[in-house]
Amino acid sequence: MSPKPKSRRVLPEPPLTEEQQETWLAYMRVKLRLNYEMNRQLQTDSGLSLADYDVLNALADCPGGRMQVGVLAARIAWERSRLSHHLQRMTARGLVERSPSEQDGRATDAVLTAAGRAELDAATPGHAALVARMFFAGLDPALLPALRTALEQVHEQVLAEGTLPRPVSQHRLPGLYPGS
Distances in Å between the alpha carbon of 45 and those of 50, 61, 133? Predict the structure, then answer.
């Protein structure tokens, strides 16, 4: 993946206002603690790490449970080398397989195995319950639309300024939502 050219935009002085600094620190506190808690819950309840769950979740969202490794790396925002090493460990555990890409014979696909799907299906309800308790239970439901809009805007800016290609669209996993 070739890096995007650096932005030529001039940063304001100072780069962050006091409100921006406090907001960023609040975000970092949530991100770091929530990642810790999600990883701990997944490992305790299912033996999966949060990294395993991210890979399995992305693959489960794709037709045939398969995705080119480079596309998967962009989807979960990992460097290809990190993903390659992690897929090696997951392959050894029978959660995924690697095979030549169906679209491009020069590329490799990561493929969700039946065992990987079963592990994901078993882990998802507990993971979703933790997210509901830790992220949404303390949040005024009236703030959800504004929070979603803000997060979507930040994500678009990260995509515009970042170095990874735009990821493929993400869908909801079946079984977590009424009527799915």
Answer: 12, 22, 16
27: number of Cβ within 10 Å: 12
Q: Measured between alpha carbons, how far is 68 from 107 in angstroms, rounded to an integer?
A: 7
Domain residues of the chain, as ranges? 20-129
Predicted TM-score (pTM) of this structure: 0.84
How far apart CA 23 and CA 45 sit, in angstroms, is: 32
Q: Are strands 96-100 and 66-68 parallel, antiparallel or unpaired?
A: unpaired
Angle between helices 50-60 and 80-92 in degrees, nearest 10:
90
Is it the case that residue 179 has pLDDT exceeding 50?
A: no
How far, in whole angstroms, is CA 42 from its chain's centroid? 15
Using CA atoms, how far apart are residues 133 and 136, in angstroms rounded to an integer? 6
Question: CA dist 148 to 16, 23, 36, Å?
Answer: 22, 16, 22
Compute the C-alpha angle 67/32/171, nearest 5°. Answer: 30
Digit-coded pLDDT (tens) for 52-111 = 999 999 999 888 999 999 999 999 999 999 999 999 999 999 999 999 998 888 899 999
Report the distance separating Cα 154 and Cα 104, nearest Å: 32
* The CATH number of domain 20-129 is 2.60.40.10: no
